[in-house]
Amino acid sequence: MKKTVIVIGGGLGGLFTGAFLSKEGYQVTVLEKNATIGGGLQCFKRNGTSFETGMHILGGFQPGGNLNRICAYLGILDKLQMQFTDAEAMDVITYGEDGRCYKLPSGKEAFTNYLKEQFPAETEGIQQYMDALYSLCQKIDLFNLRSGKGHFFAHDDDDEAFMPADKFIAKYVTNSRLRDLLAYMSPMYGGIAGHTPTYIHAMINVLYINGSSQFIGGSQQLADCLADIIRENGGQVIAGDAVSHIEVHNRFANRVITQSKKEYSADWYISDVHPDTLFSLTGNGAFPKSYVDRVRSIPNSYSAFSVYLKFKSETQPYVNHPCYYQERYETVWQLGDYDEDNFPQGFMYITPPSRNQGPWAERMIVNCLMPFEPVRKWEHTTVGHRGADYQAWKERLMNKVINKLDALHPGFRDSIEMAFASSPLTIRDYYGVKDGSLYGHQWDCENMVRSQMPIVTKVRNLLLTGQNVNLHGICGVPLTAIETAETIVGRGMIVEKISKIK
After folding, report:
1. What's the CA gap between 339 and 482, in Å, rounded?
2. How many CB atoms are located within 10 Å of the residue 234 CB?
3. pLDDT confidence of 155, banded at 50, 70, 90?
4. What is the DSSP letter of 41?
5. Which tens digits make up the pLDDT trace of 183-210?
6. Is the pTM higher than 0.85?
7. DSSP letters along 121-178, please?
8. CA atoms of 296 and 303, how far apart (whole Å)
9. How many CA atoms lie within 13 A of 159 on its CB side?
10. Residue 407: partners with Cβ closer than 8 Å, 6 or more residues away
């Protein structure tokens, strides 16, 4: 008989882990609390217009890239509708302080040469920085889909890998504005000055510099493709019935019970939910108190305030790359701070491509970093019942964002047909993550032992996957899923197969 696996949570990590195990002959059941699977891949509709919730820009899908090879191995690469961002401007960063606009091209050589042109006095440092960035990534077996030590923390005891990312940049570059520019991706990985380790900065930057892309018509398609793999191999993906309890006896999981009182048992259980949520499902005594206290003491990454816009027909041009705005130089590491009077200090905005995309944009998504504290006073409210003061607060902040965009692009406000916003509370409730954390736990190179979350838990047949283990995002979560699946099927078993895909 097939070995059985229950995956709690149908987000990116749960679906990828389930798909890998399904291909290895395991009978997988995925249980998702929301009516729609996918976690950050989910899309929703407002007045007939579809919006992504989280997965806006992709890395690793260029030929030979790790996500390209993973999806080819799973047999879904050709089923995904994607397009690459503009090679000559994969990202554009504008600084309000002086109106300077930097158009960063993709590819290591082009990216490096562009920076040298913009900052000629830093030519030598730029080259050394880029070489060090790529060299560090080459040492990480899992990032390069090589069988070896496996997990992200297994590369050499390289001082640079575990030094704060901001100090790594400063080691090679003296110009403060260039230092800020080189850290422009930090909001994409929950970067905190003095704490975020360089290996995270390196992997995410290299991933996107090598080539970025977007889903055409929304990110939900990836979730659906992964679910199809599980079903085609005899498994099931059940949405809209949250797990309410995990029964654990003598450090061994026996069954899960859902809100509809259905019971499921398996040989293995995999959690794709935030560890704090997991502890609430297992109850007291399932894990040692010291373990629970340690995990709960790990700080969570910041959240976001997002604005969703639908444009009037043929009023805003479609732009095939993300745009970043920052009010002042030397503040990129502080964009997660909050002060309503000066909000927003920076944001990312993007016009996701629709099917049959023409020259005009249909919609835009704007993401502004934000901690949970501004919404703390409404934390005990529920969706649709947060009160008039909450709605007024959201409206004020949304108008501040639109005003900034109108200053950047005169006439922008007049092109808007529909506008609405979400807050850290939305992320908390939608994804089931503590304090609306965008990127899971905060990694801290000052205390790596504390911030690491091993896949193996104190419950012998219960494993972890998802963004709180190793690394978040479109790259980190699937790579973690490989490691989780290989904990069951054997180290190197899946990576060896993927490595044959070129």
Report:
1. 40
2. 12
3. very low
4. G
5. 999 988 899 999 999 999 999 999 999 9
6. yes
7. GGHHHHHHHHHHHHHHHHT-TTTTT-SSS-SGGGS---TTTTSBHHHHHHHH---HHH
8. 17
9. 3
10. none
Q: What are phi and psi of 15, to 5 degrees?
A: -70, -40
Question: What is the rounded average pLDDT of the residues 436-458?
Answer: 87
- The whole-number pLDDT of residue 157 equals 59
Residue 2: C-alpha distances to residues 27, 28, 235 (Å): 6, 10, 11
DSSP code at position 27 = E
Q: Which two tokens stand for residue 333?
A: 């590491």
The pLDDT of residue 470: 81
What distance in Å separates the CA atoms of residue 211 and residue 84, rounded to the nearest whole number? 7
CA–CA dist 46, 420 (Å, integer): 9
Beta strands in 299-362 (DSSP E): 303-311, 323-326, 346-350
Mean pLDDT rounded to a whole number for the chain? 94
Contacts of 263 (CB under 8 A, 6+ apart): 255, 256, 257
* Separation of alpha carbons 61 and 64, rounded Å: 8
How far apart CA 142 and CA 151 sit, in angstroms, is 6
Is 111's pLDDT higher than 90?
yes
